[in-house]
Design a protein that fits this description.
Helices cover 36% and strands 16% of the residues. The protein contains 13 helices and 13 strands. Helix 4 crosses helix 5, helix 5 runs antiparallel to helix 6 and helix 7 packs antiparallel against helix 8.
Length: 331
Amino acid sequence: MAVRPEDLRRGAIYASATLLGAGMHPRQIASAKMTRVLPGFWARSDALPTLGEIARVLQETLRPGCLISHQTAAELLRFPLPIPMTHAGGAALHCRGPGGAPRTAGNLVVVHAAEGDREPVPLRGLWLTDPVSTLRDLAPRLTHPDLVACVDALVSQGRGALLDRPLERVREEAESLRGPGSARLRAAVAQARERVWSPMESRFRLLLTAAGFPCPTMNLQVSDPATGQMFVIDMAYEQWMVAIEYDGDGHRTEARQWRRDLHKNEVLHQLGWTVLRASVDDYRHPERFLRRLEHARSAEHPTRQAMSTELPREWKIPRHRSGTAEVRGLT
């Protein structure tokens, strides 16, 4: 009996020859019930394989000896990429080499020239270009805030990318790189900070410094004097006792998070902090928030000269496709 799409294993990848040999009609292979995940390879449309499984077939079967690279490596490493650069957003898989392989660019796979100057890294049975080289390769396609957010994820001390690097090591590796994207990566590394736990914390920090405010302390720990319970301030100006809390959608929709935020607010007020809450709208249209921050600062230090709340002309808010998740975009 001829095999049908619904007979195939969920999440499995099949070569065209395998499907044809099992009796599946070419019209069924080309139907909406099947999705071409790589040239010559298919999967059930209602049970697609993970990016890691597709990358494994690319590395072991389609391009033996290649290294997973560019945005595919970045996504597998869990860098916070804009959705159009992710597999779910329609991006092709990228790889380097193997040595001598011609460079090609298709809708499903892009093959880049091999590089032998840096050691690849293993990840869950795959071999990837190293994280710093991966960010160098992506630098020409990322905005500066997005690139800084990726570096922050790499040096976040276990709260961001799957592979963690000390910031000083990333600086040294970035200095040694050459080629397109190297200068942009070094500029991003210069503004990266450790202990940054979300892309929006990265972007908001850059917004504040671009407006002339000093860099806040990221994820400062404070404790409830009554219970000893620990809380973390997203961005803190200790010298002014101003706490900035960035609220993504999870702070609104998750009851446990909402209750914890209420408790933290109460504790911070008891300790004498002024709490400013920020959302994605404050990032997209920051003028009012910057005035609120300046007001809170000047209330603590009324004799100091007021800071400008105008952003420099070269500052541009990156535009992202609507509906992005907080890990990937602006919510």
